[in-house]
Amino acid sequence: MSSLQEQLLKAGLVDESRAKQALKEKQKRVNHARKSGGKSAAKKVDPAKVAAQKRQAERVARDNALNEKRKQAFEQKAIAAQVKQLIETNKVDRSKGEIPYSFVYRKKIKKIFIGETEKNLLTGGRLAIVTTVVANEGRRFELVPMEVARKIAERDPETVIELNRQDDSSSAEDDPYADYKIPDDLTW
Known about the structure:
The protein is α+β, with helices and mostly antiparallel strands. Among the domains are: 4-37; 88-173, no CATH class. The chain is built from six helices and five strands; from the N terminus they run αααββαββαβα. The protein has a three-stranded antiparallel β-sheet with strand order 4-3-5. It is rod-shaped and about 135 Å long.
């Protein structure tokens, strides 16, 4: 069966150039309908696409939160490693310590044994007590110089336990008990 266009050409009612022009116009209308149909389909809200986009956005937010937590955990580990290294490289040797020195750590009284010079430096504000966690031993207390203790306190303030300040001469002038000497052998 032939198309209407072919039948009109055979009958001589339409010439060939006019048939080609009509065919082109038809193709334009079809293409235009396809294009506009695609646009109207894009304008329509597809609930499945909206749900998929929402899930994707939630997934991205969750991934970002997890990445932030991992980043913070990595930074905390790096700070802990720096603190441990500062303590290990700068700790004062107290292997010959015979004098007990008591201090408060987390509402409990702890005791370490130090030498006479370490005691004088500690009470004079030139040494500080810091804590570190050792895998096999648990928590260990060490003495470090004041400058190192300040660096440690910048990174992790909870690590520095006792940070005595050096004596100020200005406060000694206003002290009403300045005339009374504290005995050297006083320990608690």
